[in-house]
Amino acid sequence: MCAITLILIIIIVEQHLINGGFKEIVHTADLSLKVWATELSALFTISAQGMFSLMKISMCKSEPNYIEVNINEIDLECLLVKFLSFLLEEIQKNAVVYDIQNILFAKNSLSATLRGFPIILVQRDIKAVTFHNLEVIYEKGTYQATLVFDI
Amino acid sequence: MLNLKNFSRVDDFEWIIPQTYRADMRGAVHIFASQLMLERGLKDHSFEQAINAATLPGLVGRVAVMPDMHQGYGFPIGGVAATLLPSGAISPGAIGYDINCGVRLLASVIDFEQAKPYIEELTNQLFSHCPSGVGVDGFHPLTRKDLDNVCHEGSRWAQKKGFASKADLDLTEDNGCMEGADTRSISSRALERGLSQVGSLGSGNHFIEVDRVEKIFDETSAKLMGLQENCICLMLHSGSRGLGHQICSDYVHAFQQVSQKYGFRLPDRELVCAPLNSSEGQAYLSAMRCAANYAYCNRQMLDFAARQVFRSVFCGKIKNAELHLVYDLAHNIGKIENHEIGEKIEKVFVHRKGATRAFGPNSEGIPACYRETGQPVLVPGSMGTSSWVMVGTTLGMKKSFGSACHGAGRTLSRSQAKNHINGGQLRSSLMKNGIYVKTGSLSGLAEEAPEAYKDVTEVVAVVEGAGLARKVARLIPVAVIKG
Fold first, then answer.
1. Which candidate in B73, B248, B273 is best for mutational testing of the A interface (most A CBs within 10 A)?
2. How does the average pLDDT of chain B come out, rounded?
3. Per annotation, catalytic residue among B30, B237, B245, B406
4. Which three-class secondary structure string do you get for B377-407?
5. Any CB–CB contact under 8 A between B187 and chain A?
6. Ramachandran region of residue A95, left (φ > 0), alpha (ψ -120 to 50) or beta?
7. Closest CA to B270 of B30, B80, B53
8. Do B249 and A27 touch (CB under 8 A)?
9. Domains in chain B, start-ordered, CATH in brackets?
10. A6-150 has CATH 3.40.190.10 classification
11. What is the bridge-based pairing of β-strands B356-357 and B344-353?
12. What is the pTM of this model?
């Protein structure tokens, strides 16, 4: 059995905001996040944390489960959508939320080490990560992307 | 930046963005709206998205935009676009993630005044027996073989298992089954998600509503539908759940490469597409039909549960407590249909995203009993206002590929709604107005508050004014069940 302590994902988010951040953008029907970071790895990490924050996930702090993930795609945008979709699938399928420990990039591929915790409650469903107007931009030392989630 | 000067006015209910507005458009955009709605529409990205939809390869005729339009992703909600067969585009993003999200209406001869003392119990029982909420499973888990059958047969599977009657199938769009579905086009993940969710409502804007028929505008059509003033009816809104979402996600992702392969240049990556007659296009089409069949079956199963609740609550209290199906329709779907393009009848693939098929009298594919009046068009409102029953028209066949609105349409984002509205206070306020509310999430309730939506009466007035559909009846909610 896991420990009783509940930790809101927002706590993890704050730990990583040093390298960038996320902000919810107004969207009439769905949910949108603007994400920025000085490193590509931080952009991916913060995108995941932003998504978890929108879902209002409560997790159980127990012995974590570590996994490795490798993804190959045709470009950075596909890589970002695939990575977030994998995390979403883990929430829906296995009720596990992952804290991103490390991500390494090679050309249009990534290898990530993830630390998983069991989920107690998901307050808001996200159905899918969309490609709507998605573009990973690098400008003046900062990576940026705007994500739209279907709910 | 788009402004009012870019629209030409046809009449009080129709506006055009000409094909010349942007070089990559393949047709004009026709917006069905009042001037006020048009001005409000400029505040989000609905029209830019409709212009982008007009760039779909193989587009024919016009892009039609319904008055409940609002910004979506890639394609606007309330958008209709058709492409010419055999090689016109099929775009998963132009159909949406909740494939065959739709509405079902059941009517009764139960007088509201007689039912009134039992509405609270009815609400609680419906909440208990029709599973709802984030990630909640349905009441009838499927074996892998049954899931295959549901995807291939839709509501026919439910009929074989005793959850549906022939009359139910007759009164469901496509008779509850789109031919040509093939589970070999679906990922194992999509199938896995489908195993447990048939017979569940979901969350977000999905709901079950008990309504009172408050006013009838068209006696003939209402009689055919079995709608009687002051009697109660039940409306439910749900779709293909995780299975449909996964299929859309899988194909939008896969089509990122497919679009490049066919040399399609699109203004938004969410609109990626394939020629309908390509192997990729055919694969998505058969996968989409699986999800459509799953959704028809899902709503049929919820209908079965709701009828049992009605029997159980009213047993010994009201003589005839049976519900009968008025109609079940899809509002996120792609279909091969015949339409008049110029002076010719052409076979086209119609994408409807947040738009209801609204076929007029004597159209192919509508139930025999509605052949003379046109098919029923179900327009749910926001939970504190009203919902509408309309019928399709002959004029709508020409103006909008036989399509009409699918609801009221959002005006506030979910965050804005929650900033303005408290879920607990909203529930109390609805209760004071005689609307029982049962929800698993008060914050979810706040997101769906009536204030977050357009005035459905204005939307319906535009639809009727533009000649896309005619009013039949106005329904007033007396109970709302939300996930």
1. B73
2. 95
3. B406
4. EEECCCCCCCEEEEEECHHHHHHCCCEECCC
5. no
6. left
7. B53
8. no
9. 4-89+100-411+453-482 (3.90.1860.10)
10. no
11. unpaired
12. 0.94
In this structure, of B128-142, B156-170, B251-265, B292-306, the range with the lowest mean pLDDT score is B128-142
DSSP class of residue B453? Answer: B
Residue the block writes with tokens 């585009």: B89
Q: What was the pLDDT predicted at B60?
A: 97
Rounded Cα distance, A54 and B394, in Å: 45
ipTM comes to: 0.86
The reply to whether B406 belongs to the active site is yes
Measured between alpha carbons, how far is B399 from B420 in angstroms, rounded to an integer? 38
> Minimal Cα–Cα distance from B71 to chain A, Å?
6
CA distances from residue B330 to A34, A57, B76, B378 in whole angstroms, order as listed = 33, 32, 17, 10
CA distance B267 to B53: 9
Cβ separation B410–A29 shorter than 8 A: yes
Residue extents of the structural domains in chain A: 6-150
Q: Does a cis peptide bond (omega within 30 degrees of 0) precede residue B367? A: no
How many whole angstroms separate alpha carbon B315 and alpha carbon B438? 22
| Pairwise CA distance, residues B297 & B150, whole Å | 7
Residue A9 has pLDDT above 90, yes or no: no
Q: Does B18 touch chain A (CB under 8 A)?
A: no
A17-60 per-position pLDDT tens digit: 457 999 998 888 889 999 999 999 999 999 999 999 999 998 88
Backbone torsions φ then ψ of A149, nearest 5 degrees: -110, 135
* Nearest CA among B460, B235, B208, B230 for reference residue B326: B235
Inter-chain Cβ pairs, chain A and chain B, closer than 8 A: 91
Residue of chain B nearest A93, judged by CA positions: B193
pLDDT of residue A18: 55
CB-CB: which of B71, B74, B272 is closest to A28?
A: B71
Chain A residues near residue B44 by CB distance under 8 angstroms: 28
Tell me the H-state helices in chain A. 9-16, 40-55, 76-94
Put simply, whether B73 touches A (Cβ < 8 Å) is yes
Beta strands in B244-400 (DSSP E): 274-275, 324-330, 332-341, 344-353, 356-357, 376-379, 387-392
Element (H, E) at A98: strand A96-106
Are residues B70 and A93, on separate chains, in Cβ contact within 8 Å? Answer: no
The answer to whether B248 contacts A128, with C-beta atoms less than 8 Å apart, is yes
From the list A28, A82, A127, the residue facing B97 with the nearest CB is A127
* Chain B CA closest to residue A150: B97
Q: Which residues of B touch A27 (CB under 8 A)?
A: 71, 413
Which of helix, strand or coil describes residue B300? helix
Residue of A nearest to B99 (CA): A127
Alpha carbon distance B50, B64 (integer Å): 8
